[in-house]
């Protein structure tokens, strides 16, 4: 008999607060893994993607998969904030295991003893109850015995982890068992000499699928350290995840029955008589000497060699030593049958019940017997109850000599010797435990996004969806703009409804003085774009008498007139409106909205140059407030005189985009494009190849929605301006129109911006509402190229926090878009050219080959925009020699333009890869898809070259 003591001689006392936080940690991780399990079982139908997972081991009906190297995840497992994230080895085990859910839940909660050198129970958070006999949360330690350790090539790895088990009742019926092992920091669980403290996270789910079959799904991650250690540790980790249950249940029941018999007798087992209790055969002295007879471990009766059944098991005694012994049972007799008849929930409760002998998650395997086949050895924990005369020793598992064949059972009586003193003073222990649990809780919060099966290996600095931020008085200074661009601002919006020319010039110059991150040098390093938002044609009220507000009372009548005599003489009975065709447009029964929809009027009469309306709600109205005529066709020019002056200024200062307000039909876009062309001739005649600003049409009324297809065809992009649109149409229709606009833009490959009140509460609060976070995330999941901030970044108290918050939400939603479930919703129009066909094939190749990056070499940006249409799952680095082209590519999802300073020509493929590697976007071993496209001539068209390269 051999044994080895645990290095942890006392349990750690957790405060109620610490225990609660550990429960929160376990629940957060379980919820995240449960979502993945449901996607795997319901959406993927239990199929494992061979492009992501490599089959490395199978046993019976179980299969173990190793995540391929290029898809390996980065997991925020660091204990100290200054530590770097470590790449984890991810494994997936799926299949089925024989038995019932109760038996599997009872038997799989401990690691296999053949792989574990030592183990210890450090703390108990919760125990099983009668209503849930399998529920428990504990903190444990184990020493994983790895290959080549005895040769000195590697060291054993040990783990401190929280273990949670239980059974969930599913909404659609049935039960789902779970087991979680997740690394935590626990004060007192000091690092041991000769061992490497590693990290793991394993979550397994079990579900009854047939009468004697349980489906198994286990996703695990571990810190495999160096390559040499990985080759030694990963095989043990795989065996640890593969549940082996065929031979455990019988021995477990037999050993529990034996222990119960010993403790009830309160003495060591004794042989009763010299005759076999089964066949009455007398055992001779020679048989005694040759040990050809034994005593039954349950009834203590003498049994001969022909009638006995042997079971070899291993237990942990109260003095911290692993002991092994052969169990003998008389057969056929009630001893074996009664022991085998114990049900699994009852055994699970008995594990943690008070009493003289308490088995903590016992796990036994038969090794050899005349009734069962040979099986691997497992371990169990035996500890004592808490009365003073039976002081509980620190439970643990120790298996330092698991290679030996002889195994003996020894159950010690309670020891009256006091437990060893704690390793830390109680006050220090409590502080360290709380700090450790809080660190673990922070790590757990990132599990849902960081350990998904579909997570892309790209760095977290890449956000595929772009941020458009309105710059105003609180954010126009250089230092503030620099912080905003550092947080992820890609396009600056200037609202010319409020901005003066000197303010706009200050903002443009400051933005272009901010240092960017997508190119090098001092001359061409900034690729942030400028979006010029026009005021647009509007209908407004005139001024009120003496410039004071007037109060409109519900139920009273008010006259809206176009008579200039009332332009500055408005009263509560009659005031001026700027739209001269008001009386010809509005009919009796139509609705008129004032002050962005705050005041609702209903037309009751139409006269010459005026209409009479009934006030529907009481409200005050001031000077120059907006007037909306929802559902009515309004004859307004596409550009007001102010818009023309503003656009002339914008073209002179080389703006990149024009957000055209209140676009109603395609002819409005054509009119704006023609005026911009005249401005270019006026200010850029010396630049024959000057690139005109792209026109982004803002759809803000019902007429624009009805003519959306023609507007989309005439425009370079679309902005879903939900603010004014929500005034013109019922609020619930905004959702429908937003989805329609985003889907149609995705189908044709034109950029779309979702705007207005995305993080509205952050104008006054440092944190957004949950609904606002969902709004941003859903816009990204719909396929929006950009999401926009308005007052949050222009005049709010927290502009930096607003951009940072939006960026984090974008990254989270971008990760979800890597999963086929979310990507399946994208429907693209058929390619319109051979170039587009080639580009779509390149994007598909990059997605299927798990490329780290796509590189596009483009002169005009045409090829890059076609790449963006097909929503690649990896970032696209676009190399161009034109700054204007680079800035205009910023509006497309996933495109990151680069203009190298050291080249006046387009870089070669090798130069582009070297540049990407220098900037930290690529590393050795990464795979990259390269596309180059150029227009050869008007006769020959475009040339598209695609290639795949492995970075050296």
From TrEMBL:
Instruction: Please give the SUPFAM superfamilies that the UniProt record associates with this protein.
Output: Phosphoenolpyruvate/pyruvate domain (SSF51621), PK beta-barrel domain-like (SSF50800), PK C-terminal domain-like (SSF52935)
Q: Which residues form the Pyruvate kinase barrel domain?
A: 464-803
Catalysed reactions, semicolon-separated: pyruvate + ATP = phosphoenolpyruvate + ADP + H(+)
Q: Name the enzyme group at the top EC level.
A: transferase
Cofactors, names only: K(+); Mg(2+)
An example Pfam family from this entry, by short name, is: PK_C
The answer to keyword Disulfide bond applying to this record is no
Show the GO MF annotations.
ATP binding; kinase activity; magnesium ion binding; potassium ion binding; pyruvate kinase activity
Q: What is its EC number?
A: 2.7.1.40
Q: What pathway or pathways are given for this protein in its record?
A: Carbohydrate degradation; glycolysis; pyruvate from D-glyceraldehyde 3-phosphate: step 5/5
Domain Pyruvate kinase C-terminal residue range list:
836-936
Tell me yes or no: is Kinase among this UniProt entry's keywords. yes
Q: Output the InterPro entries linked to this UniProt entry.
A: Pyr_Knase (IPR001697), Pyrv/PenolPyrv_kinase-like_dom (IPR015813), Pyrv_kinase-like_dom_sf (IPR040442), Pyrv_Knase-like_insert_dom_sf (IPR011037), Pyrv_Knase_brl (IPR015793), Pyrv_Knase_C (IPR015795), Pyrv_Knase_C_sf (IPR036918), Pyrv_Knase_insert_dom_sf (IPR015806)
What family is this protein classified in?
A: Belongs to the pyruvate kinase family.
PANTHER family in alphabetical order: PYRUVATE KINASE (PTHR11817)
Concerning NCBIfam families, the annotation shows:
PRK05826.1, PRK06354.1, pyruv_kin
Instruction: Quote the protein name from its UniProt record.
Output: Pyruvate kinase
Query: Which source organism does the UniProt entry give?
Result: Phytophthora fragariae
């Amino acid at each position: 008999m051999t044994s080895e003591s645990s290095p942890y001689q006392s349990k750690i006392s957790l405060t109620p607060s610490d225990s609660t936080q550990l429960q929160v940690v376990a629940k957060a991780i379980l919820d995240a893994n449960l979502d993945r399990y449901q996607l795997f079982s319901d959406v993927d139908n239990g199929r494992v993607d061979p492009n992501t997972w490599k089959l490395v081991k199978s046993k019976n009906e179980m299969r173990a998969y190793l995540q391929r190297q290029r898809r390996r995840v980065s997991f925020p497992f660091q204990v100290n904030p200054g530590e770097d994230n470590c790449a984890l080895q991810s494994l997936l085990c799926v299949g089925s295991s024989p038995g019932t859910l109760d038996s599997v839940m009872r038997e799989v909660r401990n690691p296999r003893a053949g792989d574990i050198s030592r183990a210890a129970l450090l703390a108990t958070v919760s125990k099983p109850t009668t209503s849930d006999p399998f529920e428990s949360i504990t903190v444990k330690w184990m020493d994983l015995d790895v290959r080549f350790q005895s040769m000195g090539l590697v060291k054993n790895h040990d783990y401190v982890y929280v273990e949670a088990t239980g059974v969930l009742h599913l909404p659609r019926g049935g039960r789902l068992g779970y087991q979680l092992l997740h690394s935590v920091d626990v004060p007192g669980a000091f690092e041991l000499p000769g061992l490497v403290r590693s990290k793991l996270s394993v979550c397994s789910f079990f579900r009854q699928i047939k009468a004697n079959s349980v489906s198994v799904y286990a996703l695990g991650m571990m810190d495999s350290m160096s390559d040499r250690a990985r080759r030694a540790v990963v095989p043990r980790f795989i065996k640890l995840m593969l549940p082996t249950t065929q031979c455990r249940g019988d021995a477990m029941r037999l050993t529990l029955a034996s222990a119960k018999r010993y403790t009830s007798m309160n003495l060591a087992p004794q042989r009763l008589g010299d005759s076999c209790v089964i066949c009455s055969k007398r055992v001779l002295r020679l048989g005694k000497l040759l040990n050809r007879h034994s005593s039954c471990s349950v009834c203590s009766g003498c049994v001969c060699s022909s009638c006995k059944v042997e079971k070899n098991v291993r237990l942990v005694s109260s003095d911290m030593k692993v002991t092994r012994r052969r169990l003998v049972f008389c057969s056929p007799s009630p001893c074996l049958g009664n022991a085998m008849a114990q049900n699994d929930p009852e055994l699970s409760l008995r594990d943690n019940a008070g009493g003289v002998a308490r088995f903590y998650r016992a796990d036994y395997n038969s090794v050899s017997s005349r009734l069962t086949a040979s099986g691997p050895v497992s371990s169990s924990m035996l500890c004592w109850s808490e009365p003073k005369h039976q002081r509980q020793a620190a439970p643990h598992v120790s298996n330092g000599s698991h290679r030996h064949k002889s195994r003996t059972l020894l159950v010690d009586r309670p020891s009256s010797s006091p437990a060893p003193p704690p390793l830390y003073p109680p006050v220090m222990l409590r502080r360290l435990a709380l700090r450790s649990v809080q660190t673990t809780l922070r790590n757990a919060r990132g599990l849902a996004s960081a350990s998904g099966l579909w997570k892309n290996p790209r760095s977290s600095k890449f956000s595929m969806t772009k941020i458009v931020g309105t710059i105003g008085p609180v954010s126009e200074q250089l230092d503030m703009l620099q912080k905003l661009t550092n947080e992820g601002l890609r396009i600056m919006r200037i609202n010319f409804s409020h901005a003066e020319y000197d303010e706009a010039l200050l903002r443009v110059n400051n933005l272009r003085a901010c240092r960017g991150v997508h190119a090098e040098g001092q001359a061409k390093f900034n690729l942030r774009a400028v979006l010029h938002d026009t005021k647009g044609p509007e209908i407004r009220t005139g001024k009120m008498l003496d410039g004071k507000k007037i109060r409109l009372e519900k139920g009273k009548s008010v006259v809206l007139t176009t008579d200039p005599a009332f332009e500055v003489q408005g009263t509560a009975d009659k005031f001026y409106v700027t739209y001269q065709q008001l009386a010809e447009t509005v009919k009796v029964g139509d609705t008129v909205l004032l002050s962005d929809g705050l005041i609702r009027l209903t037309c009751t009469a139409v006269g010459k140059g005026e209409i009479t309306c009934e006030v529907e709600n009481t409200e005050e109205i001031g000077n120059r407030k907006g007037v909306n005529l929802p559902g009515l066709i309004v004859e307004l020019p596409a550009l007001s005189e102010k818009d023309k002056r503003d656009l002339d200024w914008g073209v002179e200062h080389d703006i990149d985009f024009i957000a055209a307000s209140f676009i109603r039909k395609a002819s409005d876009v054509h009119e704006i494009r023609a005026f911009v062309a005249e401005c270019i001739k006026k200010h850029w005649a010396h630049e024959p190849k000057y690139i005109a600003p792209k026109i982004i049409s803002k759809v803000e009324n019902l007429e624009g929605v009805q003519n959306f297809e023609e507007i989309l065809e005439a425009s370079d992009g679309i902005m879903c301006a939900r603010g004014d649109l929500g005034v013109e149409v019922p609020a619930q229709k905004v959702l429908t129109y937003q989805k329609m606009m985003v889907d149609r833009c995705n189908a044709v490959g034109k950029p779309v911006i979702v705007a207005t009140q995305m993080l509205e509460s952050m104008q006054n609060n440092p944190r957004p509402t949950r609904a606002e976070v969902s709004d941003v995330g859903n816009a990204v999941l719909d396929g929006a190229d950009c999401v926009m901030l308005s007052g949050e970044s222009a005049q709010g108290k927290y502009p930096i926090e607003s951009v940072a918050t939006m960026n984090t939400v974008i990254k989270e939603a971008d990760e979800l878009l890597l999963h086929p479930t979310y990507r399946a919703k994208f429907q693209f129009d058929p390619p319109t050219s051979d170039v587009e066909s080639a580009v779509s094939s390149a994007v598909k190749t990059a997605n299927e080959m798990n490329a780290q990056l796509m590189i596009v070499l483009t002169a005009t940006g045409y090829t890059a925009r076609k790449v963006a249409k097909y929503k690649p799952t990896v970032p696209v680095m676009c190399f161009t020699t034109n700054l204007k082209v680079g800035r205009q590519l910023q509006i497309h999802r996933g495109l990151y333009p680069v203009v190298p300073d050291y080249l006046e020509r387009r870089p070669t493929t090798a130069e582009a890869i070297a540049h990407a590697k220098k900037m930290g976007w690529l590393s050795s071993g990464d795979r990259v898809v390269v596309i180059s496209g150029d227009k050869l001539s008007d006769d020959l068209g475009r040339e598209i070259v695609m290639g795949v390269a492995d970075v050296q």
